[in-house]
Each structure stands twice: as C-alpha cells, then as structure tokens.
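ugh ok fine here u go
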Amino acid sequence: ENREHEFVAVASFVDGTRQEARVVTPAVVIDDEVDLALEQLYVTAIGAAGPVLDLRPEELTIIDGGRRQNLVTFARGDIPMTLAVLVDASESMSGGYLAGAVAATEGLLSRLNPLDEAMVMVFSDRLHALSETRATLDELDGQLQALKPVGATALNDHLYAALRMLDSRQGRPVVILLSDGVDTLSLLKAEEVLWKVRRSEAVIFRVQVQGSIGQSFGNATVWRDLHQQKAEIDGLDRAIVESGGRVRLAEDIDHLAEALDEILQELREQYVLGYYPEHHDEQPAYRPVAVEVSRPHVEIRVRAGMARRDRDAME
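structure:
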C-alpha cells in the first residue's frame, strides 16, 4: 500500500545479543503535477528516389517559434499509433465505392501491429457506425457489410469529432479519411477544423477516390455558394497539410488498398524528433514549427505548428 512503512533489520549474534536498525519510508506523493515539456515531431523525409531513411541527427534542425532548438531524442521506425479511419458513406459513394472503401479499411486494420490501436467511424450527414477500440472491430463487421450509401457529406463535423476522440487516447494519433468528394452539409466550417488541428497532435491523411469529385468541386450546396465552397475545399486541404499529412488521390476503388498501404508504410518509416522548447513561459497559444535538413534535394514533411500545453490554450 502507498503509505508510511517501517523496516527493521535484526542481527542475532552467537553470544545471544541482538542489534537492530530501523528506517521509516514515507508514502509516495502522487498528486503533484509535473510539467514535462518534451515535444515530439513526426517527420517524413522524401528524396528524388523516394523515402530517405538514413538521415543523421546532425542533418536536422528544429525551429520552434523562430528559435533553433536542441534535439534531445532521435529515432526512426515503427512507433505505436492510434489510428482513426473515417469512411464516407454518403450517396455519392454508391456504385461499389463504399463497399470498396470498407474492404480496403478491413485490409488496412489487418496489417496493424499488436501495439497499434484503431477506431472506425462511418458517416454521411450522420453517424452510421462507430468502433472506438480495436477490440470491438469484430462487432462492427456486420454493420459494415449491411451499409448502403445514403445522405449528404458532413465531413468537417465528423473529422472534428474524431480529433476530439483521439485527444484522450494513448499512442501516436493518426486520422485516415476515405471520401470521394468534399463537405456538403457540415455545421462546422473548415476554419474551425483547422483550429482543432492546431490543438491536436494528430496527423491527417485523406485518400480521395476519384469518383464524383468533379461534381463536388463544381456545385454549390444548400449552405454555401460556389465561392464559399471553394474556400471550404482550400481550408480543409490547409488543415491536412498543417497537421503534417497530405491528400492522396486514388485513381479508382481498385487502387484504394494500394493508397492505404503507401500511407501505412510512410508512418512506419517516419523519424521521431524530441526536444524541450526554450522560453516555454513566453510561448504564444500557437506558434510555427519547422524542421530544416542540410542534405540537398530532401523534402521534409512535418506539422506546421504547435499549441502551448496549458488549459488556457486548449479552451
């Protein structure tokens, strides 16, 4: 039990005498708050021939809020993750697109490592199915097979909800969004999603199936005219890029599994950089972050900024 303990050591000698030594250990204080300001950045390095997997720590420089930082931890390889897969089940995903997305999602989940966690959210203008843990995915299987494409696409709303759910989870947070189009019915705007992305540690990958994409980009919606719709499209793309992720186009549903495998491989090959931000007390609620590389012809992809870790910044 976590309480005060007394330990007594007794020595008995051959002449019958005894000696004792005593020590009292106090209870361990477990309600103190300790602020560990170690920040971690997940970095993808791309060269002319593909991923660059042999970078050295001295080739990388972290710039946080305009200041160079001291790199204290450096690793590359497979870091356990918590993966949120969002599957668009709106009416535009008919014609085999939804079935293909479900099959590709199941294939992706089967290739996760034992320490990875996963959740699946199927949505259109409402939530159709949700599994919050990897252990409950089997219970979701029957629901997925019975799904029919229906309704509009509330992409912003459900992406925001997934980011909120990942806030309380362990492991490296990753969102993979499978959709053939863009948002048409969310109450939240892309700028509100961007606000949440900047206060989340999650990286977002969007796999866009080229189905009715032309219609989605060309039409106004009940909520927005053409100009507003274009602004929403650009805003969501910005949120994805700022998270350190990217948009991956799949030519058709048959190439969806290939796109997911590519993303999973990228996650497995990322560098993990750790540092203690200097001048922590002076940090704004959100500040830009960048990683510079000295090796020529290498492109770095990393999240664009970092939120201050305190209650006021997260409200």
